[in-house]
Each structure stands twice: as structure tokens, then as C-alpha cells.
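seq:
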Amino acid sequence: MATTYKWQFAPRFRRNAIGWKSDTPTLRNKEALTEIKAVAKEEPLLAFDGAVLFLEKLAPAI
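struct:
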């Protein structure tokens, strides 16, 4: 079963979008993890894809 899901956190993690001088990085990380955990309750494999996407987006955003 192929499910398409538009992750809400993905657009917030752009290259060089996160600086460390504010609370924004912590807030964005918490939002992403909350979304992934919510999806994991219904579709664990989709949540795994979201976790991988989160890690892929996080590194360039830093």
C-alpha cells in the first residue's frame, strides 16, 4: 500500500534556515518529532520515512 503524505515539517528545514541564537531550532525539532510520532501511531512505516526525511533535511539546515 503506497500512501502519500505531505509532511508539514519538511518546508521549515531549508538550507541555512536555522540559526542557534534563538529558540526556533528547538521549536522546529519538537514540531517535527510530534508530527512523526502522531503518524507512527497509525502507520509506522510512513513514520520511518518521515524520520529519514527529518534527518536528511536537518543536516543542511544547520
